[in-house]
Specification:
Layout: H1 2-22, E1 24-29, H2 37-52, E2 57-62, H3 74-79, E3 85-89, H4 112-135, E4 137-145, E5 148-152, E6 166-168, H5 172-180, E7 184-186, H6 193-198, E8 204-208, H7 209-214, E9 223-226, E10 232-239, H8 240-245, H9 248-282, E11 286-289, H10 292-328
Parallel strand pairs: 1-2, 1-3, 6-7, 6-8, 9-11
Antiparallel strand pairs: 3-10, 4-10, 5-8, 5-9
Length: 329
């Protein structure tokens, strides 16, 4: 009897091990903090896939600090299959894929609705072609953070106030715009932004209203210039080899859920932007919208940035920028 029981238990253990081995478990890395809105969306997306697959496909989402990567590393670590999925911001990986960084050109596209309706479908083939050839990476979905604004320790009543103004800029184009306006852009890691504002190392910082609220900018920046500079263009990147290894039904599920969730990212982040602006204003931040005349002046000021970028990166880059500008403006 004991022999039969042990045999049965061994068979059951073997069966359970085989079942576990058949399950798919992936890592998904985002450079956003654990409680930031994008991270919460990524986690909900991953949980939905887990439920829809009956637990067969588990995606573990790791936030900033939980794995030893920075925002600029994500594309490479997905390409190397250190994580199967990653949150890639083209502004942070412009050194790797400069031709895909069109939306970082100031004022190229500032409408989230127009991005999703017109720009994203038009540029999707170019993104997958570039990422597939060079990195063996697939774009599961495109999404954008709300428009970038300038959060300030002192008011900017006219564009002349940009002279000698120092602002934390997270890409080259923001720094170049500051230079053209007479100020300067300073490169600071996300974790150092609030201390730098507190110590007056910088006078302001570029980011969208949602992270500004998440990071409690209201405690250090009582002013904001709402200039709708750019949308932060992101993709959920997937390692192509890992994608190819998925069972057909799970691959189809991932693709279907990615399409579904692109719409949810759109809806939730547009609403989150509205809510964040309202909350920041209620917390005492004075939000000043740029005037129509200032907007025109700013757009004319940054045109050399567009020209320099297209001259450097060639026809594919120009084509992507032209699509964005035509669709959004």
């Amino acid at each position: 009897m004991r022999l039969i029981t042990l045999t049965a238990l061994a068979a059951l253990a073997t069966s359970m091990t085989a079942a576990r081995a058949a399950d798919v478990e992936w890592k998904f890395y985002t450079y956003f903090a654990a409680n930031d809105k994008p991270t919460l969306l990524h986690k909900a997306f991953a949980e939905d896939i887990g439920k829809a697959s009956g637990g067969r496909f588990k995606i573990n989402v790791f936030a900033s600090g939980e794995l030893p990567y920075k925002a600029a590393d994500v594309l490479r670590v997905v390409a190397q299959n250190q994580v199967e999925m990653g949150d890639v911001a083209f502004g942070f990986v412009a050194g790797d894929v400069p031709a895909l960084n069109a939306l970082s050109m100031p004022f190229s596209c500032t409408s989230m609705d127009k991005f999703y309706d017109k720009v994203a479908p038009a540029i999707a083939p170019a993104i997958d072609d570039e990422l597939g050839k060079r990195f063996k990476v697939h774009s599961a979905m495109q999404w954008v953070m709300p428009p970038q604004q300038l959060w300030l320790t002192k008011p900017v009543e006219t564009l002349d106030a940009f002279k000698n103004l120092k602002a934390r800029s997270w890409n080259r184009e923001q720094s170049e715009m500051m230079r053209l306006l007479g100020g300067s852009g300073v490169s600071i890691t996300p974790a150092e932004v609030i201390p730098a504002l507190q110590r007056k190392v910088v006078d302001g910082a570029f980011t969208a209203a949602v992270p500004a609220l998440d990071w409690k900018f209201n405690e250090v920046t009582p002013y904001a210039l709402m200039l709708n500079l750019t949308l932060a263009h992101q993709i959920v990147a997937v390692n192509q080899a890992a994608l190819d290894k998925l069972p057909a039904d799970l691959k189809q599920l991932l693709q279907a859920k990615s399409q579904e969730w692109a719409g949810r990212y759109r809806t939730e982040l547009i609403q989150a932007d509205k809510d964040a602006r309202k909350t920041l204003a209620e917390k005492g931040v004075k939000l000043r919208e740029v005037t129509a005349a200032e907007n025109t002046q700013l757009q004319q000021t940054v045109k050399p940035i567009w020209q320099e970028w297209t001259d450097k990166n060639g026809a594919p880059a120009k084509a992507m920028l032209d699509v964005a500008v035509a669709a959004c403006n």
